[in-house]
Amino acid sequence: MINNLKQIRELYGATQEQVAQAINVNRVTVADWESGASKASSSNQEKLSIYYGIGPEFFYEKDLSDEAKNLIIATGEESKRIAKTSNGQHSKEETFHKLFESLTFQQA
């Protein structure tokens, strides 16, 4: 089975903690997904897809093409640029955390 989650996160330039914060899971869950100990649910794959800016098929189904890798890197760099130019006032992880938290609350 293909598992590109760790490579995607590293290309993006995020820590497991940042990813976990953004999609409202704990860091150990992200580590388990990356190691293959467990698989992200379809709803978490959707969140990861939005966060990384790529389709969820790249997590477990498709090898990463050079085009996909370049997109992940560019998306990560843009996220860091926004955080830097806002003097830390805007964090993609914090923004996504609030968004996904509100969506989870509404679904409950």
Strand content: under 5%
Give the CA-CA distance, first to last residue. 32 Å
Uncertain runs: none
The secondary-structure class comes to: mainly alpha
**What is the overall shape?**
globular
How many beta-strand elements? 0
Main sheet properties: none
Question: What are the main properties of this structure?
Answer:
108 residues, mainly alpha, 70% helix, 0% strand, globular
Q: What's the topology here?
A:
Blueprint: H1 5-12, H2 16-23, H3 27-35, H4 42-52, H5 57-60, H6 66-85, H7 92-107
Helix pairs in contact: 2-3, 2-7
Description of the molecule:
The protein has seven helices and no strands. The termini are far apart. 70% of the residues lie in helices and 0% in strands. The chain has helices at 5-12, 16-23, 27-35, 42-52, 57-60, 66-85, 92-107. The protein has 108 residues and is mainly alpha-helical. Helix 2 (16-23) packs across helix 3 and helix 2 (16-23) packs parallel to helix 7 (92-107). The model has no long low-confidence stretch (mean pLDDT 88).
Brief write-up:
The chain has helices at 5-12, 16-23, 27-35, 42-52, 57-60, 66-85, 92-107.
